[in-house]
Design goal:
The protein is mainly alpha-helical. It has nine helices and two strands; from the N terminus they run βααααβααααα. Strands 1-2 form a two-stranded antiparallel sheet. The longest helix has 19 residues, at 128-146.
């Protein structure tokens, strides 16, 4: 169980917004930052105050699910020639793809704390336009923290113009 990677389910994303279950602060933090990029064991080492029982509880409640397929195949921009864009900053991914990609990239690109804050911002987006603005913001943040090369790679993955 701990060597498996997990992703948030729709119920997990809904729980983050609704706060309906009596989750401890540390368990809620784990749910918020958890994505398919790391194993459960790695996440437990990064989020203080959580253990194997918290992972089991999140699974039992249907808030997370094994993410082997999602982790093995990262979301990427379409391989076909991109359709003409209506705006220069428009991302070529649909809502679900962009949501999954931004969620998985938050801690990878920004580190644990800033990634946590960014994950909160992703959860607050209600439509594709909001996610697209946030994607552009991620590129800007990556450019500031990691430089132009990392930002250019992220722009290319998202299908943003240089």
């Amino acid at each position: 169980m701990l060597d498996q990677s997990y992703i948030k389910t729709e119920a997990g994303r809904a729980e983050i917004k609704a706060r309906a279950l009596p989750l401890s602060r540390s368990t809620r933090n784990l749910l918020l930052v958890l994505d398919g990029s790391r194993s459960a064991r790695q996440w437990l080492g990064m989020v203080q105050g959580v253990g194997e029982a918290d992972i089991a509880y999140l699974i039992e409640q249907g808030l997370i699910a094994p993410g082997a397929a999602a982790a093995a195949k990262p979301v990427a921009a379409p391989q076909a020639a991109p359709a003409p864009q209506t705006q220069a900053s428009e991302v070529q991914l649909d809502y679900q793809q962009l949501y999954a990609y931004l969620s998985s990239q938050a801690t990878k690109q920004l580190g644990l704390m800033k990634g946590y804050v960014f994950a909160l911002e992703v959860e607050q987006c209600h439509d594709l336009a909001e996610l697209q603005k946030l994607a552009q913001s991620l590129v800007e943040r990556v450019q500031q923290s990691k430089g132009e090369a990392a930002a250019a790679e992220l722009r290319q993955t998202l299908g943003l113009p240089a």
